[in-house]
Amino acid sequence: MKIHHLTAAEALESLGSSLNGLDDAVIEGRLREFGFNRLEETRKTSALLLFAREFLHFFALILWLAAGLAFFAEAQQPGEGMQTLGYAILGVIAINGCFSFWQRHQAEQAIAALQKLLPHQVKVIRDGELSLVYADELAPGDLLVLQEGDNVPADCRLVEALALRVNNATITGESLPKGRDAQPSDAEDIGQSRNILLAGTSVVAGEGKAVVFATGMHTEFGKIANTLKTTVKAQSPLQKQIARLSHFVALLALALGVAFFFIGQAIGLTFWENFIFAIGLIVANVPEGLLPTVTLSLAMATQRMAKRNALIRNLPSVETLGSTTVICTDKTGTLTENRMAVKQLFLDGHYCNPDQLGRHSLQQHAAFLGCAALCHNLKRIEGNAPLGDPMEIALADMAHARGMRIDYPKIGEVPFDTDRKRMSTLHDTPAGTMLFCKGALEMVLPLCRQIAAGNRIETLDDGHRQQLAKALQTMADQGLRVLALAYRPLPEEIPDNPEQSLILAGLVGLEDPPRPEVAAAIGQCHRAGIKVIMVTGDHPHTAVAIARQIGLVRSEHPKVIVGDKLKKLTPSQLQVALDADEIVFARVGADQKMQIVEALQRKQHIVAVTGDGVNDAPALKKADIGIAMGKAGTDVAKEAADMILLDDNFASIVAAIEEGRAVFDNIRKFLTYILTSNIPEVVPYLAFVLFKIPLPLTIIQILAVDLGTDMLPALGLGAEKPDAAVMEQMPRSQKETLIDWRLLARAYGFLGLLEAVAAMAAFFFVLDRGGWEYGQILHGRQPLYLQATTACLSAIIMMQIANVFICKQRQRGLLGTALLDNKLILSGILLEIALILAIVYTPWGNALFGAAPIGGEVWLFTLPFVAGMLALEELRKWLVRRFKLFPLRAEPARLRKSGRTRTGR
C-alpha cells in the first residue's frame, strides 16, 4: 500500500520510526543510503567550452576561412593589403564572439533556485527530544514539527494535525489553501492526498507532526528539478534564420569566388591575380558586420523592452516573442492579483456588494460581521499585516472596513478539516459566550435551525433553503468561492457538540480578482492574431468565470479540459482539441502543462508560456519563450524563463510582443541596407577582371564600408520603433525567411545596381578628368589612381546615406515616413560623413585606406545619382502600393469576419 493509504501508526512503522523520531545512529546510516536532502546540481558545460562555441559556429567559420586566405595571400604576394584585411576580420570575430558570450552565457541556476525555496533549518523530534537541524540533513523516517508559516522541507506524511492548512500553489498552481489531516486517504494521486505535505509548499494555518518519506531528488520537488535538467531548449526561430542566412551567404560568396577564379583563368590572368581577385569577391559578398549588427540590435531591443517592464534573459528570445502565435497563461498571479477579496454578499434574501454594506448597517448585521471578524486563525503582529489564510484575511478586512473592530478573546475552537469543510470559534463577549462558524453552505446549512433577516430571526424553512441554493449557484457561476457564515449564543455550560441549532447570518462570495489591465491586453492579443489559452491548476468553474471576466472566453460553451480528462487523451486527440477557438485547461499538473506546450509545438505554433510557480518551470523551459513573473514569481520560474515581467503585468507582454515583432522587420531593413552595398563592392572587381581596367575599389576600402561607415546606420535601422500597424497583423509564418527573393531582388537587382552605376561613374569621371585612356596601366600609388578609387568609395557612401532612409520602409514613401525620428540613424549619418571626410582629407586616412583628396566637383557629380535612386525607389514603392504587389502579412480583421483566426483554426 502507498504511504497515504496507511494509518499514521502504520506509516511510522513502515519507515522504522515512531513518535520519538529516529536516533542518531539510524540517521547516519540513512543519509549514506538515501543521500542528503538536497537537489543534485546539473552537470554544467565549462565556461571555456561555451566561450569557444561562440567562435566555432558556421558564420564564424566562414570568417576564419576568409582571414586565413587573406594571410596566405599576403604571404605569397605581399603589399596588396591582405594582411590588414586578415587582422580586420579577426577583430570582427573577436568582438562578436566576446559580446555574444557576455550576452548569452547564462549559468545553470534553476536547480540552485529550487534549493532556495527549501528552509535551511527545521524542527524535528529525535530520540524523543525537539531539535533544530539543517534541512539537508533530513532522512526518511525523521519526524517533523510544523507550524503556521513554516516551509515544508521534504515530502512527508502527517501523523498529527490540528486545523492545518497548506499552500500548494508552488507545486500544483492552486490558489486556495488546502486543509490537511492525519487520517488515511483513498486518493490515488499522492499530491491530492489530504495527509501528504510536499516539499516546497508552506503551512498557512494550524500545526502538526509529519514523518518524512522522501528527500532530495526523490521528492515531487526533485522530480520537477529532474524535468528541468532533461528538458532541452530548441533553437529559436531567429537562430534558425541566422543559420540559414549563414549558409546562403557562404555558398553565394564561395560560388562567386570560384566561378570568377576560372573566368580569370580563361581570360589569361595569372594564378595569384586570380587568387587575390577571388578572395576580394568572397570578402565583398560576406557581410562581416552582420553578426555584430544582429547581436547589438537584439541587445538594444532588450534595453527598450526593459523600459517597458520586460526583462529579456536570452537575446534570441526578443524576436521569438514577436513571432509568437499562442500564449499559454497561468491564472493565479498572472491574470489575477493572487489575493482573495470579498466580491458579493447575500444577506436578508438580497445580493449586495461589500461597499453597499455601510457603517450604518453595523447593528443590523453585527452577527454576520462579527463572524467574519472573529472566526479565523490569523496571527496579528503589531504594525504588520495579519498572517494566515488569504481567505480569512479578506473576511477580516471586509468586517474591519465596515467598522467591526472587535477582538473578543477566543476560548475554544472546532478546527477545520476537509471532511467537515467548516470551522468554528468560541468567544467570550459582553453578551455571553458566542460561537461563530464559517464553511461550505452544504455543510453549514444542515446545522442551522434559524436564519437572520435584518433585525429579526426567522425559522429556516424549505423556501429559505431553495433561495440559498439558488444564491449559491448564482455566485458560483461568477467564479466566486461561497462561504456560509452562522452563529449561536452558547449556554454557560458549553455542550460537547456546540455546532448545532445555528443561526445562518448570510453568504459571502470571495474571488481572486483579475488584474484590471488584463482584459485590454487579451483584446490586443486577439487583434494581433495571437491565441491565448488559460492553463491553471484551479477549479474549472473558477477558471471559466475568470476567463469570461477578462474577455478570454466569449462563447456560451467554451471547451474546458480538466487534468483527469487530459490524462486520457492521446497526443493526436489533444492536438485536435487544441483547434477549438476557446479552450481552458483546469486542474492540470506540471507535466501536463508541458504536454500542452509540446502538442502546440507539433502543430507548428510558436508557444509562449507564462507562469510564476515551481510547477510552471518545466513548461517555461520547454516553450519557445518562457515568461516568468518578476514580483510574485519563484526563483525557479525566473531561471527557467527567457523573459521576466518586472511588474507582473500581463499587459507588458503585449508591449514586449510589439517590440519583438519589430525586431524581425528591423533585421530585414538593415539586411537590405548592408546587402545593397555588396553590389557596388563586387562590380568593381568584375570590371577589373572582365574589362582589364584598374581596380576601382580596394579590399581595405571595402572594409571601410562594411565595418566602418555602414555599421552605425545599420544599427539605427535595427533600433527602429515598431510600426503603428505591427499589432494589427497576423503573426509571421515560420516559412517567412529573413532573406527571400524579394529582398534580394530589391537589394542586389535594384538598389545595389544603382549604387554600382554611381560608384563606377564617379571612378571613370575622375580618371577621365585626369587624362586616363583605356588600356593605360596605373600603379597603386599614383595620385590619379588614388583619387579615382577614393571617388568610387565616396560615391558608395553617399548612396548609402540615401539608402538608409529608403530602407526605413518597404512600401511607404518618404513623405509618409518619419525621417528624423531615429537619433541613432542621424548619429550614424553624421559619423558616416565624418569618416569619409577623414579618409579623404586627412593624411592618416589617406595612408590607411589608400585614398587621396578629391575636389568638390566629384561630390557634385554624385548628387544626381543620389537623387535618381531616391526617385526610382519612390516610383517602385508607388507601383507596389498602387497594384498591391507583394502585400505584407494579412490583418486579423479580414479573418475575424468569419469568426476565426489563423491561430484558432
Automatic annotation (TrEMBL):
NCBIfam families: ATPase_P-type. Belongs to the cation transport ATPase (P-type) (TC 3.A.3) family. Type IIA subfamily. PANTHER family: CATION TRANSPORTING ATPASE, SODIUM/POTASSIUM-TRANSPORTING ATPASE SUBUNIT ALPHA. Residues 2-75 form the Cation-transporting P-type ATPase N-terminal domain. It is a multi-pass membrane protein. It comes from the Bacteria. Pfam families: Cation_ATPase (PF13246), Cation_ATPase_C (PF00689), Cation_ATPase_N (PF00690), E1-E2_ATPase (PF00122), Hydrolase_3 (PF08282). It is found in: Cell membrane. It comes from Methylomonas aurea. Gene3D superfamilies: Calcium-transporting ATPase, cytoplasmic domain N (3.40.1110.10), Calcium-transporting ATPase, cytoplasmic transduction domain A (2.70.150.10), Calcium-transporting ATPase, transmembrane domain (1.20.1110.10), HAD superfamily/HAD-like (3.40.50.1000). The chain crosses the membrane at residues 55-73, 85-102, 248-269, 275-299, 743-765, 785-806, 818-841, 847-872. Keywords: ATP-binding, Cell membrane, Membrane, Nucleotide-binding, Translocase, Transmembrane, Transmembrane helix. This is Cation-transporting P-type ATPase.
